[in-house]
């Protein structure tokens, strides 16, 4: 979440937010690389100049120890597709708490100090203390991560006299770095001077991945409502078409794409994605498996004989649109986090626990599909982070359909066609997002679609593209709605899914709800009798009454087991739920009196269970629409039949096992 409401925000305001140092961003110069170096630093995608612009003379520290060494635990061997590398710094004469190690890629990235690079982090909303190098390092750790470093618990000897006595006692530290195969070679660089004024002490030398072309991170998505075909998308350093082999003998060739300079940047707002945060994405392969049956399991692998094959994985197709039932998981704002003690750009602390919990749900075989509704990886222009995110979700997304909606952190940027002109995408402007997550949309940069799975009709919108009454997006979505609710399949539950919410009690510095968006789109929800609305963007869980124009048209009643039950047999208004607690640091609610004695109304049809029976009855912006609030990491799981829809929210209280999971996990 980060952004300003309204489409007419002046650029000047954005610049003011970024601070006075904005205009002083240091852009790096281009220096041709020697031919041998060019060979070493092989490009895995298209050829372009800007991927090598970050070359500068290295800074040096004064009087470095002559005994310094940086050794990596591979012992000279190439890195496998995933590893926890032990990096040992030895030969230190005087440990200093400002000593740190960066993991850089490719190994020719500029490690000079660029103090104003901090602006590039701020541009995407990240205010953390991070290394200010001229090219973004993948991750970094202070040597104090090794508790024995400052006290010199691990000693060595740099120099001995003729008798063998040590004349130069040295200290060492060992750090752990988690790495996944992002294709380009890696180097560990030892610095002193902290993150702000770094100088280079020693480098490890480049280490390559064992197979930079390895097909990795396969993830599935539905292509239409029939559930007889599934798209698989994966990444490789190889640009030749590969194949997905499935169902005991069938195969489909991949369509290969990549992206280079086709993102966005403007002169007064230089984009990290185009330079400071650039990382070669390799090639993105996508193939459609056809001739499948709905709700059936299939085994597949992807790759080629020349670059290797993935492991075999089993997936299940979702139920066909119009069939009896559907179970799905939905969340927003997940992102990623390091699996080691490193600092990285834009860490989402709940992402790992939520991803693991969803993976566990998948293992039960009771989840048909996943919906991730915006703010996907938070790479926001620091492109190597897409690989880490894809690695995180592969256990989930390789087994069931992983459907997405676009968020501000994938799309927004000035002069790029986004409704909101904040620099939240870091200059990506949806290009990496649409490359990695091809959805059944009508065209590029029109990331809205409708799809049916089981008894649910999903309308997935982009809150970042024009949504006014006459907009292309709204027109197309209305057509879909009319088609399906007219006379074809009238029993379907209609879910409206997007990123930015219409109702949120979270305060915060910036408003989370755009009144223009609400005024334009909310009437459609009522007109077309949308049952349930899911949004993210705000990092918590909140559920409303059946609400329209901030008034409760319908109030749920608790059933015998204490579950809030809404009656949609006499439709009054949609129920809204924010499910943005998928990983980003949580947003709290204002401190209001809680109570759980809402006046009951006879309702049935849609049920929402509650985690702690936390119900609020407070006046918020003139309404009493906020019924349930949970500020914990988690996700919603929904089971929909032709008559009922049960919504449960599994929160971090349960993820961390602090409460019995034998009870109804919910809300
Ligand atoms: Fe957001």
UniProtKB/TrEMBL annotation:
EC class of the enzyme, as a word: hydrolase
Domain of life the protein comes from = Eukaryota
**Molecular functions (GO terms):** acid phosphatase activity; metal ion binding
Q: What is its EC number?
A: 3.1.3.2
Instruction: Name the catalysed reactions.
Output: a phosphate monoester + H2O = an alcohol + phosphate
Q: Which residues form the Calcineurin-like phosphoesterase domain?
A: 327-541
The name of this protein is Purple acid phosphatase
Q: Which organism is it from?
A: Eleusine coracana subsp. coracana
Taxon lineage: Eukaryota, Viridiplantae, Streptophyta, Embryophyta, Tracheophyta
């Amino acid at each position: 979440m980060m952004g300003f409401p309204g489409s007419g925000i002046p650029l000047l305001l954005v610049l003011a937010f970024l601070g006075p140092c904005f205009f002083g961003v240091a852009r790096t110069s281009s220096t041709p690389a020697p031919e041998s170096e060019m060979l070493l630093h092989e490009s895995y995608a298209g050829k372009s100049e800007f991927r090598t612009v970050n070359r500068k003379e290295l800074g040096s520290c004064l009087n470095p120890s002559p005994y310094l060494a940086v050794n990596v635990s591979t012992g000279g061997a190439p890195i496998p597709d995933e590893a926890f590398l032990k990096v040992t710094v030895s030969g230190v004469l005087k440990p200093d708490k400002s000593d740190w190690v960066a993991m850089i890629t490719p190994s020719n990235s500029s490690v000079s100090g660029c103090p104003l690079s901090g602006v590039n982090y701020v541009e995407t909303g990240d205010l953390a203390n991070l290394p200010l190098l001229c090219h973004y390092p993948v991750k970094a750790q202070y040597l104090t991560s090794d508790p024995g470093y400052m006290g010199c618990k691990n000693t060595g000897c740099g120099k001995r006299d003729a008798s063998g006595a040590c004349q130069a006692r040295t200290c060492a530290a060992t750090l752990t770095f988690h790495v996944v195969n992002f294709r380009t070679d890696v180097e560990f660089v030892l610095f002193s001077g902290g993150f702000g004024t770094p100088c280079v002490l020693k480098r490890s030398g480049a280490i390559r991945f064992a197979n930079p072309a390895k097909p990795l991170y396969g993830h599935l998505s539905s292509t239409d409502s029939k559930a007889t075909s599934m798209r698989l998308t994966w990444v490789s350093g190889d640009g030749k078409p590969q194949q997905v082999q499935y169902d005991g003998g069938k195969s489909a060739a991949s369509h290969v794409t990549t992206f280079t300079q086709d993102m966005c940047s403007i002169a007064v707002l230089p984009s990290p994605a185009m330079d400071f945060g650039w990382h070669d994405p390799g090639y993105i392969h996508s193939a459609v498996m056809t001739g499948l049956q709905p709700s059936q399991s299939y085994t597949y692998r992807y790759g080629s004989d020349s670059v290797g094959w993935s492991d075999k994985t089993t997936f299940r197709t979702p139920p066909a649109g119009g069939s009896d039932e559907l179970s799905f998981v939905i969340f927003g704002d997940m992102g990623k986090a390091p699996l080691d003690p490193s600092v990285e750009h834009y860490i989402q602390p709940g992402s790992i626990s939520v991803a693991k919990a969803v993976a566990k749900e998948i293992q039960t075989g009771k989840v048909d599909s996943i919906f991730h509704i915006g703010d996907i990886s938070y790479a926001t222009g620091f492109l190597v982070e897409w690989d880490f995110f894809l690695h995180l979700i592969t256990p989930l997304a390789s087994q069931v359909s992983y459907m997405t909606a676009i968020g501000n952190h994938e799309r927004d940027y000035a002069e790029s066609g986004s409704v909101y002109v904040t620099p939240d995408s870091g200059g990506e402007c949806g290009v990496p997002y649409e490359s990695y997550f091809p959805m059944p949309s009508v065209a590029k940069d029109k990331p809205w679609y409708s799809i049916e799975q089981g008894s649910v009709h999903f309308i997935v919108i982009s809150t970042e593209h024009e949504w006014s009454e006459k907009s292309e997006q709204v027109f197309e979505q209305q057509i879909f709605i009319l088609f399906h609710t007219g006379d074809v399949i009238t029993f379907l539950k209609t879910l409206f899914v997007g990123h930015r919410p219409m109702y949120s009690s979270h305060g915060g510095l910036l408003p989370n709800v755009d009144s223009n968006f609400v005024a334009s789109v909310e009437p459609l929800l009522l007109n077309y009798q949308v049952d349930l609305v899911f949004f993210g963007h705000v990092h918590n869980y909140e559920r409303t009454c059946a609400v329209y124009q901030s008034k409760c048209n319908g109030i749920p009643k608790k059933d015998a087991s204490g579950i809030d039950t809404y009656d949609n047999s006499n439709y009054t208004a949609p129920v809204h739920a924010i499910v943005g607690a998928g990983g980003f640091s949580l947003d709290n609610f204002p401190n209001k009196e809680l109570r759980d004695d809402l006046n009951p109304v006879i309702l049935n049809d849609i049920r929402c269970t509650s985690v702690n029976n936390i119900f609020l009855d407070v006046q918020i912006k003139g309404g009493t629409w906020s019924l349930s609030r949970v500020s914990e990491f988690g996700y919603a799981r929904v089971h929909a039949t032709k008559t009922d829809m049960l919504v449960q929210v599994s929160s971090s209280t349960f993820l961390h096992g602090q409460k019995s999971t034998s009870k109804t996990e919910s809300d």
